[in-house]
Design a protein that fits this description.
Helix content: 25-40%
Oligomer: single chain
Order of helices and strands: EHEHEEHEH
Shape: globular
Number of strands: 5
Radius of gyration: 14 Å
């Protein structure tokens, strides 16, 4: 496992928190050869293990930043501006990156897509806005990976 990895985070039982997993479902048939896809509930140790030693890690998650539901946030770099209050999980990507840095287990490059959540209620379905954003993110990730053969 030395190629790029896409890590989609979420929980299908918490409304828009399932948006990252919706991206994984749409992205799986679009991935170029050599790219791994990981679905995770957001456990930082699992994220760090998945991206360790990779030339590129793409992480997709639901976020809450009070932007309109379905807004897609994109950030490239090993110092994501996303804090735990923006992630739908107790620890966010910034915390996982900080822990990965401390352990010497960061990928060479990191690309983050956050999908603005409308409803994280237990038992709620993924909202139409988040579902539309999930489709757009899956397409964007597939295009980005196809255009970066040196990272596959």
């Amino acid at each position: 496992m030395t190629g790029a990895v896409v890590i989609c985070l979420g929980n299908d039982l918490r409304g828009d928190d399932g948006a990252g997993l919706e991206v994984a479902r749409r992205l799986r048939p679009l991935l170029p050869p050599g790219v791994d896809l990981v679905e995770s509930d957001g456990d930082p140790a699992e994220i760090i293990d998945a991206w360790r030693g990779r030339p590129l890690a793409v992480v997709v998650d639901a976020v809450v930043s009070h932007a309109p539901p379905g807004t897609v946030h994109r950030h490239e770099g090993l110092d994501p501006p996303v804090t735990s209050r923006h992630s739908s999980h107790s620890l966010g990507l910034a915390e996982a990156a900080a822990l990965g840095r401390a352990l010497g287990r960061l990928p060479d490059a990191l690309l983050f897509y956050g999908i603005e959540a409308a409803d994280l209620t237990l038992g709620a379905p993924v909202s139409p806005a988040a579902m539309t954003a999930a489709e757009a993110v899956a397409d964007a990730v597939a295009r980005a990976l196809s255009a970066a053969p040196d990272r596959r």
